[in-house]
Write the structure tokens for this entry.
Amino acid sequence: MGNNQVGRNFKNNKLIMETKNIKAFGTPAADKSLEQLTIHRREVTAKDIEIEILYCGVCHSDLHTARNDWGGTIYPAVPGHEIVGKITKVGSDVTKFKVGDLAGVGCLVDSCRTCDSCKKDLEQYCLNGFTGTYNGKDKYLGGHTFGGYSEKVVVDEHFVLKVPANLNLAAVAPLLCAGITTWSPLKHWNVKQGSKVAVVGLGGLGHMAIKLAKGLGASVTLFSRSAGKTADAKELGADEVIISTDAEQMKLVKGKFDLIIDTVPYVHDVNPYVGTLNISGTIVLVGYLGGLEPFLNTVPMILGRKSVAGSVIGGIAETQEMLDFCGKHNIVSEIEVIKMQEINNAYERMLKSDVKYRFVIDMASLKN
Ligand SMILES: [Zn+2]
Ligand SMILES: [Zn+2]
């Protein structure tokens, strides 16, 4: 942790920031389990908010970061970017929040705030790179950022969200990543009453895509590889389920959809879905990073002005809009609450898709 000394942060022997010790859960190396450890958080500066974390959702990115699946993980790694809690301290210049308020923190805790993207409330596309809630570059203390598997987090108020008080707090947590990741494309491609939306994959992202698209008034179809998920999808609000491996069923939806949200996190054939897009329709990939195989055929794209697009999380203003919408429409994630100490087993279960549909850690367990 660079120049960090217990309780104080020094640069060239000059005290630059007071810090405090925080109990957290993380891993010292890619091949190690997560365990309890101590991290440092800065004391609140003028624009900062300190949040006691009550719940933290468990995202696939947490697991991939802990195990260095994407490379670039800095250890010790403390994951967690679906954070909800209660404000315990605010800086002198904080205007949007007060002590005792509920608050949320998602995938980003800072950005340059001056580039074109930041000025347009698109901090997730900050041209200078946003600061991730974990494994990002800590501008205050040096070293890297630590996520929500911890007692408390300190974040500039610009990156803190207001949480609707009428919702189940634990089930709000996954909205901060899974929710906004699917909300942002729904809004960008103008999904509204009567839109025809399809969702590929029924996991943490997919189940939120169904709920949010339905909430916006769209008719919603789930593409699934097997019939086993039909009942669950309909319970979540899907109007129909199309088995993507069944050519006859795929024919039934040829040219149908305005927008397809593809949440599948591994390489897969996108071409069959392009065929189910309406003229000018878009399939947006939100789960998979990398090259497409088999290759993407441009013929149906060109002859139907169809787009294959990508999207990542959402900006702060858009995340607030999504939370307010969820408060109004009573939308939350489907969750299984676990104790912090159960995280390693939860990761193994996630790899087998054995969760409906998001694990959320009850952070009170970290106090034990
Ligand atoms: Zn995430
Ligand atoms: Zn920026």
